[in-house]
Amino acid sequence: FSAISGPNEYFHLYPCNPNxxxxxVIIEEGLSASDMxxxxxxxxxxxxxxxxxxxxxGLVTDREKNIWLAPTYDHASSLGHNLLDAEREDRLITKDRxxxxxxxxxxxxxxFYEQGRRCPSLCCFCLAALRLEPERANYxxxxxxxxxxxxxxxxxxxxPSEFASDISVHFMYEMIKCNKKRIxxxxxxxxxxxxxxxxxxxx
Length: 203
Prior knowledge:
This protein is mainly α and 203 residues long. The protein is built from 8 helices and 5 strands; from the N terminus they run βααββααββαααα. It has a 3-stranded mixed beta sheet. Strands 4-5 form a two-stranded antiparallel ribbon. The longest helix is centred in the last third of the chain and has 20 residues, at 166-185. It is globular. It starts with 12 loop residues before the first strand and ends in an 18-residue tail after the last helix. The mean pLDDT is 86.
């Protein structure tokens, strides 16, 4: 986190491409590169991304030597990507709490390590908030509240049927809803007050 979390004596790090149309909005919102990266980690927690390792985030530079945080990329290892529809359906209808979607999403681990252990995706977001800007976690959490069930359903229904079955779309919908609830339940305060999600995150 230290690579993007504060002033750098060697170069200025933009939160995104300064020539991108979204740059003005990002600057008006007062977001830094570390704020944007924190948003990436919340996205990981939301979709259960298992693959945010050191090669799946980066910096971009141009001929003028501007340097900015690359857009988030490579989310293929998310949303129960390796499950067959039979297991998805079973997890959707089971009464076994150990097989439920709620139990499944808690197993998602980031590719970041903490004290030699892979950190659960939600705990990774909590730790980043603790070490970077706790109040910015609340900024992203407020943005997440704008993702209503209706909007989420509309987004997922745009996925072509050849890429995702109805069962798969339903599973993704319930998985994201569950992770959204978990993210919103965490208390993000100051660096001394942030409460972790208590999912086995290394202390």
